[in-house]
Amino acid sequence: MVNIGNDWDGILADEWKKPYYLLLRQFLKEEYSSKEIYPPMGDIFNALKYTSFQGVKAVIIGQDPYHGPGQAHGLCFSVKKGVEPPPSLQNIYKEMAADVGIVPPSHGELTHLAKQGVLLLNTVLTVRRSAAASHRGQGWENFTDRVIKELNNKKDPIVFLLWGRPAAEKAKIITNPIHLKLEAPHPSPLSAYRGFFGCKHFSLANEYLVKNGIEPIEWQIPD
Question: Global pTM?
C-alpha cells in the first residue's frame, strides 16, 4: 500500500494491513480531499525514505509537523530551502553551535542529517493547516511506536534524542541496553530555556557512536 523504497518496506509490510492503519488511511483520504493538510501527501514518509532501517545511527523524535504553509516536508524540525527556519529549528542551531561549534546555515533543510543516518521522525506524521495536534489520536502514534520498536530491536547501537513530552513518552519503548536515550525539553521558545539549551545532545551522541565504532554524525549543515 505504501512504497518507501528501501528496507523499511519489508520490515513494515504487515503494518499497512492492520485495522488501525486502514482507519487512519480512510481518515487521511477525507482530510486531504477536504482540507489543507501538511506535509504534501507524497512527503508523509520522507523520514523513512531518506534514512533506511539499516542506516539509522541516531533518531530525533519530534511532535507533529509544522502547520504553516510550505513548511513541513516529512522530516521533523526541517523545512525546505527558501522557507524561513522556524523558532524551534533556530534554537536547535543555537545549541548545535554552542555544543559542537557548527555555523548555523542560512536555511532549514535537514536532509544532510537524514542522509547520514539521523532518522527525523515526528510522533504524528500529518497535521491540519494552523491546527497543531489536529491529527493526534488518529493512529499515527501506533505507527511510530512500531518504527521505534523495530529500531529498539536493532543489533547496532542507536542514539535516541527525545525532545519534549510526546518524544519522552516513546522512551518506554526503548528498552534495549545497547542504545542511548538522551532526553531534554522541547526546543520551542516556550521550553528551550528549561534545559534544551546546554543539553549537549549532539556531542554526546557522537561520543557514543565513536565509542561503539560507528562513524559520527557531521552536524554541520552545508549552505
Answer: 0.97
